[in-house]
Amino acid sequence: MSTTRQIHWGILGLGNIANTFASDLQFVTNAKLLAVASRNHEKAAAFKEKYGAQKAYNNYQALAEDPEIDIIYVATPHVFHFENAKLCLENGKAVLCEKPMTMSVAQVKTLCQIAIDNNCLLMEAMWTTFLPNFTRLKELVVSESLGKITQLKADFGFKSDFDPMSRLFDKKLGGGSIFDIGIYPIYACLTLLGKPDSISTNAVIGTTGVDESCTMKFTYHNSVEAHLFSSLRENTPTSVEIQFENGSAILGPQFYGPTELKIVDKNGNETTYPKYEQGNGYQFEAMHMQSLINEKKLESPVMTHAKSIELAEHIEAVIKKIGTDYKIT
Ligand SMILES: NC(=O)c1ccc[n+]([C@@H]2O[C@H](COP(=O)([O-])OP(=O)(O)OC[C@H]3O[C@@H](n4cnc5c(N)ncnc54)[C@H](OP(=O)(O)O)[C@@H]3O)[C@@H](O)[C@H]2O)c1
Questions:
Q1: What residues does ligand 1 touch, defined as CB less than 6 Å away?
Q2: Looking at the predicted structure, is the pLDDT value of residue 293 above 50?
């Protein structure tokens, strides 16, 4: 029997996604944004005011050590996730860590072990998997009501202005399309189709040494193929399109967020599930984290440690194939 109480959140790293997440916490029952931490005091103070938090820290350590905090949302660039999440876990905090959880399989495994050793909940913030229509799509696939999947296409591309200093293009900050957005098509594919038998890739490597776009083909037994694409160079439909033996489904546009799901059966009958309109959609992963805290769970049954390791393994396989080395062990 679970009990519910107010859950005290902290946010570490106050950039773009931290703002969106903080805004969505208002839709989560019993959620309280208690403290925020930035490397910059003015920024932390302004963020605190904007979202009604109680405390603003000018360093991450102080947030990690705050005894009143239950969960810390780590929202720094990918290359810092490992050290930032480790800091929080070693101070006994549950961690919701932005995607990708870290820059390598080895780091993900180590972080999961640190969470276990410290009796702390750790989950990668793959918000997609908690969204209503993605959940519906997972159920459709598992039910096999349209038969098995015969082909899957998923893409995520947006035209980004080239800035060698930005985290999207700077290799030292974990730049490149695969880590930032390719992770979504890869995650969708692994979740809906499972692990592929083989992977082939074709990437455009830019002047900063990161992949600016990447075409990936995941091949499965029985000739099933998944065609995946990520790009910082162009806008793409950002949808997941699935052909089943007896129908099809399209999730999109912006399939990684709250969006429409259209299902068509073999007779051409269409069923459309509309976009979820409240907030930006980050409240679902936050609600899930809170329910895990209330149930005293140390791991999500949905976004498991094993799932994060599997995701990292496939990202790493793609990165190795395209030959960009981030020199992370
Ligand atoms: N789930 C999603 O939909 C989603 C969407 C976008 C991004 N993300 C993920 O969230 C993470 C952050 O992305 P973002 O777009 O929010 O990034 P961002 O706007 O650049 O913000 C990152 C924050 O990290 C902190 N930081 C610490 N060390 C830094 C350094 N050396 N350089 C730059 N920033 C540093 C900064 O906060 P302070 O100055 O306050 O310390 C900065 O504002 C990434 O891992 C990304 O993949 C997820």
A1: 13-18, 38-40, 43, 75-78, 80, 98-99, 125, 127, 167, 173, 180
A2: yes
Q: Same structural domain for residues 148 and 258?
A: yes
The whole-chain average pLDDT of the chain stands at 97
Are 143 and 228 in a shared domain? Answer: yes
Say what the pLDDT of residue 1 is: 46
Q: H or E element: which one contains 133?
A: helix 132-143
Q: What is the spatial distance between Cα 244 and Cα 71, in angstroms, rounded to a whole number?
A: 40
For 59-80, what is each residue's pLDDT tens digit?
999 999 999 999 999 999 999 9
Q: Running DSSP on this structure, what letter comes out for residue 20? A: H
Degrees to nearest 5, angle at CA 223 with 322 and 270: 105
HSE-up of residue 26 (Cα within 13 Å, Cβ side): 12
114 CA → ligand 1 middle, Å? 23
In ligand 1, the atom with minimum distance to the C-alpha of 47 is: 40
Q: Which of 18, 24, 20, 27 lies closest to 35, judged by CA? A: 18
- Same structural domain, 111 and 210: no
Which numbered atom of ligand 1 lies nearest the CA of 257? 3
Q: With 70 as the cut, is the pLDDT of residue 116 above it?
A: yes
Q: How far apart are CA 29 and CA 235, in angstroms?
A: 36
Statement to judge: residues 267 and 286 lie in one domain: no
Under 8 Å between Cβ of 14 and 44: yes
Q: Give, using CA atoms, the residue closest to atom 43 of ligand 1.
A: 15
Pair (105, 68) in one structural domain:
yes
Task: Say yes or no to pLDDT of 197 above 60.
Answer: yes
Residues 6+ apart with CB under 8 A from 42: none
**pLDDT tens digits for 169-187?**
999 999 999 999 999 999 9
pLDDT at 327: 74
What's residue 222's pLDDT?
A: 86
CATH of the domain at 57: 3.40.50.720
Q: How confident is the model at residue 3 (pLDDT cuts 50, 70, 90)?
A: low
Residues 74 and 156 in one domain: no
If phi > 0 it is left, if psi is from -120 to 50 it is alpha, else beta; for residue 222 that is left
